[in-house]
Design a protein that fits this description.
about 70% helix, transport, antibiotic resistance, Transport permease protein, mainly alpha
């Protein structure tokens, strides 16, 4: 009788598709964990949206009567797309703070000690922040409707405008992840200081055409200005005059800027996560 030897083929290392499935599964699990945490602490989301809601009411009613919209129109309709954009941009402060605290308290090290994709934890953070941002944007739009803001071009363009706002937020999440993994929690709490003037030096509250020449150029090329100007056009709200090249091509820039920011900072964020102990 002849003995037959059955040899087991060596297991092949997972290919790119397998690694991608692994990263998606990790991101899904960590997204659920983050959302469960927010479900038990809804004040975190409400606290993040309280400040822009107060700003919208204050600027819309306290300062609105003194504001002139280029080309005419209701200032509150001019204001609200700017407030939507500012809310999305300022969300980076939350991302920076959460990532810095997670890294300092050992949560990030715990993830790295597990058989987990390097993309999974940062992607999970990004997905959770996108859910939070969608909630914040919905609340801001409801507030806008209460103070007189209206959509004039129908639901299709309005959904496209909301998509542009969330695309900007998605790109800035990667900036926040990268910064949060480099800063201490104490330094992360000051992240709002540079962000606030950057969101003001845009077409958020006034048209860049009303600013002095040096500031006008910065405001016109600010990525936030591109998104806000494109949203005003899609919502049918009064907007900035299209005399400059950035204003005339706001929709193209509202797509190009977030894609460029994501292409730069997403790889940097993943690389920084991998090298935390170096």
């Amino acid at each position: 009788m002849t003995a037959t030897t059955i040899s087991k083929a060596p297991e092949s290392s997972p290919g790119r598709a397998g690694r991608l499935r692994h990263a998606v599964a990790d991101a899904w699990v960590l997204t659920g964990w983050e959302l469960l945490h927010w479900r038990r602490n809804p004040g975190a989301v409400l606290g993040a949206v309280a400040f822009p809601l107060i700003m919208a009411v204050m600027f819309g009613f306290v300062f609105g009567s003194a504001m002139n919209v280029p080309g005419g129109g209701d200032y509150r309709e001019f204001l609200m797309p700017g407030m939507f954009g500012q809310t999305m941009a300022m969300g980076v402060v939350t991302t920076v703070s959460v990532m810095a605290i997670s890294a300092t308290r050992g949560l990030t090290d715990r993830y790295r000690s597990m058989p987990m994709s390097a993309l999974g934890p940062v992607a999970g953070r990004a997905c959770a922040d996108m859910v939070s941002s969608a909630i914040e944007l919905t609340l801001m739009m409801a507030c806008g409707l209460l103070i007189g803001w209206r959509v004039h071009n129908g639901p299709g363009p309005a959904l496209a405008a909301a998509g542009l706002l969330l695309l900007l937020r998605f790109s800035l999440i990667w900036v926040g992840v990268w910064l949060g993994l480099r800063l201490s929690p104490e330094a992360a709490t000051t992240a709002w200081m540079p962000m606030f003037p950057l969101t003001m030096l845009a077409s958020t509250f006034v048209s860049p055409a009303q600013l002095p020449a040096p500031l006008r150029v910065i405001a016109e090329w600010n990525p936030l200005s591109a998104t806000v100007t494109a949203c005003r056009e899609l919502f049918g709200n009064p907007g900035s005059p299209g005399g400059s090249w950035p204003a005339a091509h706001a929709l193209e820039l509202a797509l190009a800027w977030p894609l460029l920011i994501t292409a730069i900072f997403l790889p940097l964020a993943v690389r920084r996560y991998r090298r935390l102990d170096r």
